[in-house]
From TrEMBL:
Organism expressing this protein natively: Variovorax robiniae
Record-stated family: Belongs to the inositol monophosphatase superfamily.
PANTHER family found in the cross-reference section: 3'(2'),5'-BISPHOSPHATE NUCLEOTIDASE, PHOSPHATASE
Gene Ontology molecular function, alphabetical: histidinol-phosphatase activity
NCBIfam families: his_9_HisN
The protein's name in its UniProt record: Histidinol-phosphatase
Length: 260
């Protein structure tokens, strides 16, 4: 029987990130065929090749585990352990040559999130969080900031384009009350929150493979991440995400976000 220790899961996660990086970096800043998916988001040959490489490792190392992947579907979601994979989060960044794209890996054990990773191949930064084990960047411990007031918070989201009209109005209200707001960065904003240089991330229209890897990292770094109703994130969340450095900031930001 395969080991289910935190060390074993981390070893496999490292292999997955290494394989995805090796595949995706072969394609970065090269001419690419870009395909439009049903949800109108772009996918490239690099996305698909990187996820295949990750699935091959899981097939060899953890054949009984489930997989929730962006590019190649779902397998064994009733398994005790389910890996949630996004080979290239920030495909538009990848396509346009920006370094702010990453590989996201989350692990659910019995439905509970126990590991989250954001790997940034171009930046050579690997951010890892494990439940009960803290969060690290390239092996050094990191922690979310102690900012507790919206007026002192630095907030980031990927783009105004991810919001519908009502959600944009809510984000705009919250973000204008913050000390600073920034756009861009895709998954890197969540890493910045775990590292203490960003205090709030608010987004909409996400899928489980977009938010579960970051959620595992942020929770391990001492932050709070939920949906816009304050509910813990899972495979069936509605895709609206708020991450905050502290519980106090999270409560205050949620109140502004949901203000009628």
């Amino acid at each position: 029987m395969s080991s289910r220790s935190p060390e074993e899961y981390l070893r496999v996660a490292q292999l997955l990130a290494d394989a995805a990086a090796a595949e995706s970096m072969k394609w970065f800043r090269t001419p690419l065929d870009v395909i439009t998916k049903a949800d109108e988001s772009p996918v490239t040959l690099a996305d698909r090749a990187a996820e295949i490489a990750m699935r091959e490792i899981l097939g060899a190392q953890r054949p009984a585990d489930g997989i929730y992947g962006e590019e190649h579907g779902l397998e064994r979601l009733d398994a005790d352990s389910v890996w949630v994979l996004d080979p290239i989060d920030g495909t538009r960044s990848f396509i346009t040559g920006s370094p702010l794209w990453g590989t996201l890996i989350g692990l659910l054990e019995g439905g509970r999130l126990t590991l989250g990773m954001i790997d940034m191949p171009v930046l050579k930064e690997r951010w890892i969080g494990q439940a009960g084990g803290g969060a690290t960047r390239n092996g050094e411990y990191v922690r979310a900031s102690n900012v507790s007031e919206v007026g002192k918070a630095r907030i980031v989201t990927t783009s105004p384009d991810i919001f519908g009209p009502a959600d944009w109005q809510a984000f705009d209200r919250l973000s204008r009350a913050c000390a600073m707001r920034r756009f861009g960065g895709d998954c890197y904003g969540y890493a910045q929150l775990a590292g203490g240089t960003i205090d709030l991330v608010v987004e909409a229209g996400l899928q489980p493979y977009d938010y579960l890897g970051p959620a595992g990292l942020i929770e391990a770094a001492g932050g709070v991440i939920t949906d816009w109703s304050g509910q813990r994130l899972g495979l069936k969340s509605d895709g609206r995400v708020i991450a905050a450095a502290t519980p106090e900031l999270h409560r205050a930001a949620l109140a502004l976000l949901n203000q009628k």
